[in-house]
Amino acid sequence: MMKDLGENLVEEKKITKLTFALFTGLFLIIITAIYSYFIVLQKSFIWEGDGFSQHYLIFKDYSSLIKTYFSNPSAGLQFWDWTNGMGADVLSAYGYYVVGDPFVYLGLLFPASMTEFAYHVLVFLRVYAIGIAFLFYCRRMQLASSGALVGTLMYTFAFYVVLNVTRHPFFLMPMLFFPLLCIGIEKILHNESNTLFIVVIFLSACSNFYFFYMLSVLIFIYAVIRYFNLYSTKNNKLLLAYVWKAVYSYLIGLLLSSILFVPIVGGFLQSSREPGNFASGLLVYPVKYYWSLLLNLFISERYLWTVFGYSSFALLMVPMLWMQRKKFSFIPATLGLFAVMLTLPAFGSIMNGFAGPYNRWTFAISLFVSLGAAILYNSRFSLKKKEVLAMGCMILLYGGVLFVVIQVIDFRTAFIAPLIFASLMWLVLFLANKQQNKKALTKRSKGFYSAVLLLLIMANLGYSAMDYYYSWGQNTIELSVDYGTIDDEYLMTFDQLEQQLPQDKDTSRIGVTSKDNHIKNQFIILEEMGLNSYLSVSNGFISNFARQLGTGQFQLIQPLRNGFDDRQIANNFLGVRYILTEKENEVYLPYGYEVVENLSDKSSDFIVAETKNYFPFASANSTYLTYESFEKMNPIEKEQFLSYGVVIDSKEVETTDLTLFDQSLNVKSVGYQLISENKSKADIEEDEITIKEDNGKVELLLDDATVLQQAEVYVYLEGVDFTPSVSDPLTGTPTAFNARIELGERKKTIRQSDVLSFSSYFKRENMLFNMGFQDENSKKETISLQFSKGGNYKLEDLTVFVVPLDKDYSDRVMEKRDNQLNIETFTNQMISGSITMTEPSILATTIPFTQGWKAEVNGEEVETILVNEGFVGLPLGAGTSKVTFTYRPPFLILGAFLSLAGIILLALNHVFWNKH
């Protein structure tokens, strides 16, 4: 039997088309009130952080890719993109953002010139759809129209939605899917059709695997609690019947999505992401987290992605739900469970895929809060005296808690605004119920009180959003890109100097310097091959390559960035022929890259540098080193070896006819004394440096400064372990710091992120600084080492390495050119060419390794191998080899077969299992 949440309410109407129309009108009013400010300031919804580098850029590129396919379907879909980092699988790279989002495909209705406008329209459509989905849920739960309308407004304009309008628009999708999944479960639990549940599982699995995982856990929690709310008897047979129906419905939906879900998840499992320690090693959160749980309930702020920001009307809901908990038991039961989950990092980690304990799942709490608020609004004229009194006490209690909390934080007016709104709402309820108890309210009086309460809730929601965006509040609107400028910003990344580069047939890449931190995914829009990428899912093999070579710029979602720390051989090896950067960064150009005056526009702030020593895209090598031997080298030696031969797994390749590398590499350590010029700021004790003030500095005084001449210089910190001198009792022990090395004009910084930065945190035990090539006139005797935060820095070792100028290096590069694959076809789907070798060898490419690349040699399929820690390689025999590489996303065919199985099961479900 359906438990009607709206029963016993007088003169309340059911949800009809008029309710949906009223919501649409109120939605437009609130949207206009909040976001007209963006129009006034000519600001977009595109956050200058990830919005600029990821969300809009990927939406723009993917829309273009799909439109290209529709204009010429015979060419097939593009599954690989050479402009995305070193090259990336489109499904894996974009699956997290756009591939399965149904709203993205509505963007195809707009011409390319209106892409930015389309992006904004689709954000509004997502928000509107969130409200419509919740309103359908309210109708399913048989809530009366007026309360459902209020609950829907609260759900639609909860801070999670307001935040992600400009921060992460695709984070809005779970807010849409969750109420629809709940409707699906309700249908199953009431012996109705399971079709909706199957369809929404399919859509949510396609849309984003990360949030699909959370939704799966959340809908399981909802189903269990709701079952025992509806059927309290211990009927195991009935329980098993519902479990079976829910499980097979879930599996059908998941199977249907497999054509996207399987290859996307497969790419994620081979990505550079890493789980790290469970819950990041935390048993409890910092103290600040716990008081922020209370402070942020009704304001537009968040901490560790725990997002609330509800209308103050929810505060009045709490005592009513508690006092009527038998009637509405599943709402307080669910909220109680969620409250427990919020207290411990372990639950946050589980909900975040066993990674860092971010509470991004808190979007789900909005459904139950809004549902409870809808019930309260429907009960606004039938509250008991003790319920109204309890609501007043709740306001006083929250006010007391708030008073205590704001003693330790900087006060903002927004902190007391919820109390003001809650008090006004309570006053309306108090007066209405007091009058109702004396004499039944007239229809006109009820309309007046209802309207005032609705307006207060709308004003509360609007105020919270404005506090987040507007200049008198947090002023986050200033973090948005100016509307109408973003496309030009992409095109002017390098003042369009990339368009002046020679358009020859040579397959090479464009690089940047370590000072070009703003260059992330722009090469995609510029349609140029580079190295940089900034995506939530990046190739794990490229990540491993970057770590093996110890690049200090490495980040989990940006494995190759900032010009590979300006290292000569690494850039050459990756095929970087040109480097584009601002003139002021010329000192950071790797050795061998010279400014090309005729390509560097004198009116521009940018320069073009070129090298003759860039490696070919693919070349054959007969000299090899095993991974075991390679692992024993330091990062500089590893980089040096790449100019000699190829790294392979001797178990995968027959090495009889290959030559094992046995030369010594010209990498030398330099003697020095570690000194502190001011011991009041920095002190040194054996393997430990104590920094007594922030930005404290020590010096490496070289024994012989002449060893730096005509050599590349590196400083290598091994076994770094930081213990801060101070610990904030509210935010916990900080683990973030910057290490900075200075040598002459060059300054290099490596950052250790904080353990609470769960998305980017990993412990940097080693730090390698490339300080560049020093010419014969170099007389520098000291190298400075600075740490940004006070504390103790333990170092297992601190080494200064020099790599003297290698006169034979260019000859080795030329040898690789002589043995290169002569490329005849180079597209996103296929590479083909020929090569002639007098002896067996290994063809080493700079194609990022993935199982999706298949190879044929002289018409016969050959298994690819992993070479050089991150790239596709092939064993070649002596003679002429015609080589063809083709790409197809891994697991795509498997996913297609699984989706076909899902279609068959869906048909069987409809014919046999879904009869009513």
List the defining traits of the structure above:
single chain; 916 residues; Immunoglobulin-like; five-stranded antiparallel β-sheet; 18% strand
What report would you give on this structure?
By secondary structure, the protein is an alpha+beta fold. It has 4 domains: 17-50 and 117-476, no CATH class; 492-615, no CATH class; 619-662 and 810-892, Immunoglobulin-like; 668-805, Jelly Rolls (Sandwich). Helices cover 42% and strands 18% of the residues. The protein is built from 28 helices and 35 strands. A 5-stranded antiparallel β-sheet has the order 16-19-25-22-23, with no helix packed on it. A 5-stranded antiparallel β-sheet has the order 28-29-35-31-32, with no helix packed on it. A hairpin with a 2-residue loop joins strand 4 (302-303) and strand 5 (306-307). The longest helix has 27 residues, at 443-469. It is globular and about 100 Å long.
Note the topology.
Blueprint: H1 17-41, E1 43-47, H2 50-71, E2 80-81, E3 88-89, H3 90-94, H4 102-106, H5 115-140, H6 145-156, H7 159-166, H8 173-189, H9 195-207, H10 209-230, H11 236-256, H12 258-269, H13 287-295, E4 302-303, E5 306-307, H14 313-323, H15 330-343, H16 345-351, H17 365-378, H18 385-405, H19 413-438, H20 443-469, E6 480-482, H21 486-491, E7 509-511, H22 522-526, H23 540-548, H24 568-573, E8 576-582, E9 594-595, E10 606-610, E11 618-621, E12 623-626, H25 627-631, H26 635-641, E13 646-648, E14 659-660, E15 668-670, E16 672-675, E17 682-685, E18 688-691, E19 696-702, E20 711-718, E21 721-724, E22 737-743, E23 746-752, E24 767-774, E25 782-787, E26 791-794, E27 797-804, H27 809-818, E28 822-826, E29 830-837, E30 841-848, E31 853-857, E32 860-862, E33 865-867, E34 871-876, E35 879-887, H28 892-913
Parallel strand pairs: 7-8, 12-13, 12-14
Antiparallel strand pairs: 1-6, 2-3, 4-5, 8-10, 9-10, 11-30, 15-27, 16-19, 17-18, 18-26, 19-25, 20-24, 20-27, 21-26, 22-23, 22-25, 28-29, 29-35, 30-34, 31-32, 31-35, 33-34
Helix pairs in contact: 1-5, 1-6, 5-6, 5-8, 6-17, 8-9, 8-10, 9-10, 9-11, 11-28, 12-28, 14-17, 14-18, 15-17, 18-19, 19-20
Transmembrane segments: 20-40, 117-136, 143-163, 169-189, 196-228, 248-269, 281-299, 305-323, 335-355, 361-377, 389-409, 415-432, 448-470, 891-913
Pfam families: YfhO (PF09586)
Keywords: Membrane, Transmembrane, Transmembrane helix
